[in-house]
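Margin note from the TA: students keep mixing up input and output lines. Inputs are the sequences; the output is the structure of the whole complex. Example:
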Amino acid sequence: MAIRVTIWHEFRHEKKHEHVRAVYPNGMHTVLGEALGKDPNLRVRLTTLDDPQHGLSDEILDNTDVFLWWGHGHHGEVEDERVTELQKRICNGVGLIVLHSGHHSKIFKRMMGTTANLKWRVGTPPDREVLWVTKPGHPITAGIDDHFVLAQEEMYGEYFDVPEPMETILISSFTGGEVFRSGMTWTRGAGKIFYFRPGHETFRTLYDANYQRVVQNAIYWAAPVAGGKVPAAAPHSKAGWIDERLAAAAK
Amino acid sequence: MAIRVTIWHEFRHEKKHEHVRAVYPNGMHTVLGEALGKDPNLRVRLTTLDDPQHGLSDEILDNTDVFLWWGHGHHGEVEDERVTELQKRICNGVGLIVLHSGHHSKIFKRMMGTTANLKWRVGTPPDREVLWVTKPGHPITAGIDDHFVLAQEEMYGEYFDVPEPMETILISSFTGGEVFRSGMTWTRGAGKIFYFRPGHETFRTLYDANYQRVVQNAIYWAAPVAGGKVPAAAPHSKAGWIDERLAAAAK
Amino acid sequence: MAIRVTIWHEFRHEKKHEHVRAVYPNGMHTVLGEALGKDPNLRVRLTTLDDPQHGLSDEILDNTDVFLWWGHGHHGEVEDERVTELQKRICNGVGLIVLHSGHHSKIFKRMMGTTANLKWRVGTPPDREVLWVTKPGHPITAGIDDHFVLAQEEMYGEYFDVPEPMETILISSFTGGEVFRSGMTWTRGAGKIFYFRPGHETFRTLYDANYQRVVQNAIYWAAPVAGGKVPAAAPHSKAGWIDERLAAAAK
Amino acid sequence: MAIRVTIWHEFRHEKKHEHVRAVYPNGMHTVLGEALGKDPNLRVRLTTLDDPQHGLSDEILDNTDVFLWWGHGHHGEVEDERVTELQKRICNGVGLIVLHSGHHSKIFKRMMGTTANLKWRVGTPPDREVLWVTKPGHPITAGIDDHFVLAQEEMYGEYFDVPEPMETILISSFTGGEVFRSGMTWTRGAGKIFYFRPGHETFRTLYDANYQRVVQNAIYWAAPVAGGKVPAAAPHSKAGWIDERLAAAAK
């Protein structure tokens, strides 16, 4: 069965800035959507901040297996109540893939419990980023060599204020000598979360084959497992229930 | 230097219910405060939901190294804004020890990102709880045998909806056959968090020597490390800064 | 493509003890092999301690994606050199599922670095084991309710001396009040490891549908990811290689 | 009470190579020993590969709280039986701090279960290493700024084949653009393990104040906790023991 992927995109920079539009004429989400859409096992839809309910209607939330999230300057405009609903879905198994400046989105900070702060620089000339695989054999880096390079990117530097991850999959170095944990995984409830660093709006990262491969792999990794519902919070029957049930079954 | 410990206590059950007051005439926090107060390295103060700003004034937040938190029926009354301030302190190094029904407090759910739901039962007769040490050599279980028993307690059962911990230190079984991860650690930013399961308001758990020892140990474990401030989120100087600085130093 | 599963079994108790043979007339491995063999995506073979090279010939090692391992009284008879070869395969991506008393096998202790010691009891009457799911949504517990019960089992009790796991998936309680982390995962290099507690040779556990489902799920989870080879240890080319390569590509 | 620190050093390069002796005339261990010896809470002794029993006599093993380990070209000469004894001590609480090329020592590979392979380069000119703190507030980086620089070092590059750590504390970048997880922690049984990357024998790293501070901090972190003994592997008394004991205590 196909994985239902929703690409949530802020989609404001492209409308406001000529130099962003020059790189992503129809928006970053469209580039990613087209790349992922070639995989017949993925059913991709696009949604943006300016859509009804900020692209987070119940209809969308209830029909998504994995969310991709790119936002930057307008995190605060996403309604808290919608974020709460998304958070519930994640705890029940929906996957979340947070891209680049999405680190400061409400939903990511909710899931982490931390500030998600970091250092940054859009250099002149831009930094060159080298992403090193620190977890070979992980499904998210399948088909990736021991490293890959993005010729131009924004720098993100440590300390990145997130909880210790379950797995550190990619670590970047930048021209300036900074480093960053660029691919990390966590679980929250039944949901899987992947943070993937690159993807500044003025660079061609989303067209990069290695970048696209990592995102595609991450979708498969983050997709909910059938039968993964979290038990409801509930009072529990009186002591003795186990043996009563065993006795009943033995009759 | 002494560790500044603040015991935050909801302190409503004792006022409302005779059978709780019978066990804790001056409140649960007072029993814990007296026990911890015998340690000259701890400077203990008590604060409650009915204190100004719900016991979370800036003065208190700025003069606490480790918070203990017991709440139950009135989590919702703690103001969001105060919780946000406490969260900031934790990310900057303040320790948090969450006790029993505090699992549903706003601050704990904030730090976890999950529902913190679980199963529960106050049985008749009450369950007997056995707490097994699953991490010998950890500072929090120093002086504890390979297990200890609480003759009467509320049952909490898995699944407990919290992120995979850094360390699982204690696991309980109950008369009914349920199990629970009763002692777990996490870090968030520079702050350390410990969840400790036992301590229902109608049982004498807080008088128990093993219980008190675990809490005391946890305070030392959770206390901030000197010089542990998290770097500010900030743009970073242009590439080349490292070598310029090295060159300057070499002159 | 089918997953190549090798069930390594000590297969001595069944030959020596009538009361074991009564439960597993053709060996425990045969029961498991038949159950797993119904899945057309698994290609199952059986191998035992008394086979050539202790069932660990290069031919077997090089044609196995996931090993299952049950041993008990004769761990010491497996040659160190064969264990070393198996360890290499695991670090390069082969999965390892260790069953019950396999906790004291050479290969498991090699991968853990610890003693893998624990408490145990074959009670009269035997303990009843309740296995609670502590990680809903994990592929290994897909299709399993929030718990399942084995009416008769050997007790294993904490402390279980293994490294803190990546994930704790199942925790057991026993009639006697002991607890045990019965399902845990680790990774070592590109390889995934799952320990699964139940399966004493005198009880009918291996016929249990929940037991079989967990093992089957674990095989899918532990199977190597295509393209997951660990980079060779090697000296690395001189500084400047990245930019030289980028410049060459830009021409 | 003072922490008993044993610095285990291979001490062969200094004897054989003039250019190493030029940097460390009395051996690398002596430089480290003198620096640490200034701390009155540390009782430091030095031991080397050419000492009786390779510096790992029972007398030494039984009187050490924390081992530091630097080796490089002669790992194979350390007797397996002594390594086994050291491993037992670590599982029972002794701390282990592995320095630089000690990553390929028998004891480190034993504790990890993996190859501990990595990439490396002694460049001409040497790489400049920047070590970034990725865990502010951790006791091991107390007193360290958000990064520190070593002007000349050997490069170590990922993938570093070790199990996912409990905590990643430091990540390095090198002139060549490589990265490395340079400070990582694990626990094994009651023992704590810290790997610290820098310290090639031809550079002045061991004289560096930040380097020395990290090592000193790590010793305090790795020191055994009083009362941290691992329970013996043992059969466990019959079911019912808990309630019998409670009943006896209640009389």
